[in-house]
Specification:
This protein has one domain: Response regulator (Rossmann fold, 3-Layer(aba) Sandwich). The longest helix has 23 residues. With 160 residues, it is α/β, with parallel strands linked by helices. It is 38% helix and 14% strand. The structure holds 4-nitrophenyl phosphate (4NP). The site of 4-nitrophenyl phosphate has 11 residues, from loops.
């Protein structure tokens, strides 16, 4: 089992749809499954800053609420400090991973990974697709991926 509590940051593009949902769902799953003592900090941010200060997209909030998960966040852009503050930065898609790797200061602490690398259900796509221009189905599908990936992360990292 990990000795020190770990910090996890979730990253997408705008920090209003996918990553605040991932932050809320991961926190919920970690708490309900009894592992909050293994966590130091959970947060989320975007690679872009267009929505800074905004609350999550109402479709993300509605999807979380419908599934019994509380969500509260103000969008922000990733900073260089985040690469020292978090043990893991879990990105929603490959473009987010690539952008983060370009910004990542040399020798920084954070492991930058695609969140989907932790999936348990091999039938689920690894990429949490950008749902911004789609319908509410996209948000529910993102939610299901994020629950599965959160359980995988617990199993492979928190309980390893
Ligand atoms: P997110 O979704 O990256 O999941 O927060 C998006 C939100 C806003 C935009 C793109 C993606 N946008 O272009 O404004």
């Amino acid at each position: 089992m990990s000795k020190e509590p770990i910090s996890v940051g979730f990253c997408c593009l705008g920090n209003i749809c996918r990553s605040p949902m991932a932050e809320a769902v991961f926190r919920h799953v970690v708490k309900t499954e009894g592992h909050i003592d293994k966590i130091k900090e959970i947060d989320s941010f975007g690679t872009g800053g267009w929505h800074e200060g905004e609350s999550p997209d109402r479709r993300s909030s509605a999807t979380c609420r419908k599934n019994g998960v509380s969500i509260s966040h103000k969008a922000r852009k990733v900073t260089k400090d985040d690469f020292e503050r978090f043990d893991y930065i879990l990105a929603m898609d490959e473009m987010n991973v690539n952008n983060l790797m370009q910004m990542r200061p040399k020798n920084s602490k954070a492991k930058v990974m695609l969140f989907g690398e932790f999936r348990r259900d091999q039938k689920l796509p690894k990429v949490v697709e950008d749902p911004y221009y789609g319908g509410s189905d996209g948000f529910q599908f993102n939610f299901e991926q994020i629950v599965d990936f959160s359980r995988g992360f617990i199993e492979k990292v928190l309980l390893a």
